[in-house]
Amino acid sequence: EAITVQELAQRMAEKGADLVKALFNMGMMVTVNQTIDQDTAELLVEEFGHNLQRVSEADVDIVSTEDVDAEETLEPRPPVVTIMGHVDHGKTSLLDALRGTDVTAGEAGGITQHIGAYQITTKDKQKITFLDTPGHEAFTEMRARGANVTDIVILVVAADDGLMPQTIEAINHTKAAGVPMIVAINKIDKPEANAKKIRERLLEHEIVVEAMSGDVQDVEVSAKTKQGLDTLLEAIANQAELLELKANPDRAAEATVIEAQLDKGKGPLATVLVTRGTLKRGDIFVVGTQSGRVRALLDDKGRQIKEAGPSMPVEVLGLGGVPNAGDQLTVVENEQRAREVSAYRTEKANDKRTTSVPANFENMFSALKSSVIEYPVVVKADVQGSVEAINSALNRLSNDDIKVRVLHSGVGAITESDVTLAAATGAPIIGFNVRPNAKARQQMEKDKVRLMYHDVIYHLTEEITKELIGELGPER
Ligand code: GDP
């Protein structure tokens, strides 16, 4: 089912241009005459503070993330941390080293299982959850699917190497997501390590670390000698405290799928991260479009547990099929309800396939309370000189009402990582004398990411200007 922006505006008694602006802020570029799908329409309706009349009632309390838990039900929950950085800078080594600091590791003789995430308890009795699929691609892909599980990003930079292309991608993906960052300057044990140089180079990317009187925590570590790990754990605890992470543990559980697979012996398995409530053995749930009943819960040491609370990663047995990473698991009251919900979700999934709207409407910039419209773009060009010229030309197009925001820019072909970032934010990709590689092209088609290919800067700014005027509408 689709409705044009104009029709929706009339029903809501709002101006069409205001809806277009709101959509724009959600990362969608549409005109008043274009159609949007039901999900998007609902988002808009809520955005404007109108009441929602649903066509199908089956899913109401399932999809509404609006059913917010009352303040007094909230309790502190552990932070969820993702590690990012350039290849070989030590992401995996650091994850292993941090895992080794778990004071409960020795108890009960559990064997380390790789279930996509693990939780440690520090010597200060603080719990921290780490996603052990490091990297910014996985991070942004999850976000693109609406799963914002990461609270804190640790950016690993090897002190003997410096800022490399994937370091910069990681920085930009983290910034676009608005997730706070801690810089871990790794391999500090190496004689050629130069932490000072790293801090200076970070300045060029507007990351001012504490050692340079900024507010981004930076810690020198060695995943090899374990130097600095305690300081890093403290930095995480500090950041978590600032974030005041809380969830209601006493309700039907909701969780996000981190990883899933088909096991020959155990059947479909999924590692989920509980986002709120407590997941218990025997719970009936819907995950994606599948339903199931929790047959067993296993922690990251392979031990059977009875229940899992907020921020706890747990492997779930008893699924009807293999879900996708990023799918939401929702506990429901009975099997009848589970069937209704999964039928409704299947229907919606089918609908989505036929609409032309990007699958993701996440407003990456909702934190920005101002009325300035952000126009996000990803820029790739053949040479550094062009990248710089384009960035400054785009800057000049910004005014009080609209701001062109370059999420990421770099030299070289358009890659999957660029597409993931663009898809998550609804940004077009500007290709200046460069085109997407084969995989990136496929992904662009799938995610409906737009390519603006140009070889003359003037033509590029002309196209963007037209877009900006169109988006602002006649009133501005
Ligand atoms: P990833 O690709 O970012 O996951 O990096 P890895 O964790 O696989 O590490 C890449 C290489 O750097 C491996 O050979 C590690 O042994 C080495 N390495 C990682 N951390 C350190 C460190 O703190 N000091 C030293 N000397 N080597 C390290």
From TrEMBL:
Occurrences of domain Tr-type G (ranges): 76-246
Binding site for GTP: 85-92, 132-136, 186-189
Coiled coil spans: none
Subcellular locations according to the entry: Cytoplasm
Gene Ontology cellular-component annotations: cytoplasm
Keyword hit for Endoplasmic reticulum: no
DNA-binding among keywords: no
Keywords per UniProt: Cytoplasm, GTP-binding, Initiation factor, Nucleotide-binding, Protein biosynthesis
Subcellular location, principal: cytoplasm
Molecular function per GO: GTP binding; GTPase activity; translation initiation factor activity
Assigned protein family: Belongs to the TRAFAC class translation factor GTPase superfamily. Classic translation factor GTPase family. IF-2 subfamily.
Cited function: One of the essential components for the initiation of protein synthesis. Protects formylmethionyl-tRNA from spontaneous hydrolysis and promotes its binding to the 30S ribosomal subunits. Also involved in the hydrolysis of GTP during the formation of the 70S ribosomal complex.
Protein name: Translation initiation factor IF-2
Annotated gene: infB
Full protein stretch here: 295 to 770 of 869
